[in-house]
Amino acid sequence: MANFSGPAERDARCCAFCTREMPPQSGRGRRRRYCDRRCQSAAERVRIRRRLALGVMVEQQALKAEMEASCT
Ligand SMILES: [Zn+2]
User: Fold this and answer.
1) Is the CB of residue 15 less than 8 Å from the CB of residue 38?
2) For a tag site, which of 39, 53, 56, 72 has the least CB within 10 Å?
3) Which neighbouring-strand residues pair with 14?
4) How many angstroms is it from 68 CA to the middle of ligand 1?
5) What is the enclosing helix (H) or strand (E) of 7?
6) CA 61 to centroid of ligand 1, rounded, Å
């Protein structure tokens, strides 16, 4: 294959959490997205928290809309 080095390829070599450059991966298989397990678990936690926050926000907005609708 040709030596391809696009922006996506470059991003894949950086940790998706701390964005530090990762050491070259040895062997084949799934490409790692994080430099170590700490970043992986931290990113996972952020993702879960974000999803929860988003769910709460949507819930609050729905509640607010409901309250406003019943007030007027
Ligand atoms: Zn990292």
Assistant:
1) no
2) 72
3) 21
4) 44
5) helix 7-12
6) 34
Sign of CA dihedral 64, 65, 70, 72: positive
CA of 37 to the centre of ligand 1 (A): 8
Tokens of 1: 């294959």
- Give Cβ neighbours of residue 39 (< 8 Å, ≥ 6 apart): 15, 16, 17, 18
- How much is the pTM? 0.55
Question: For residue 22, how far is its CA from the centre of ligand 1 (angstroms)?
Answer: 8
Confirm if 21 and 39 have CB atoms less than 8 A apart: no
Whole-angstrom distance, CA of residue 53 vs CA of residue 58 = 9
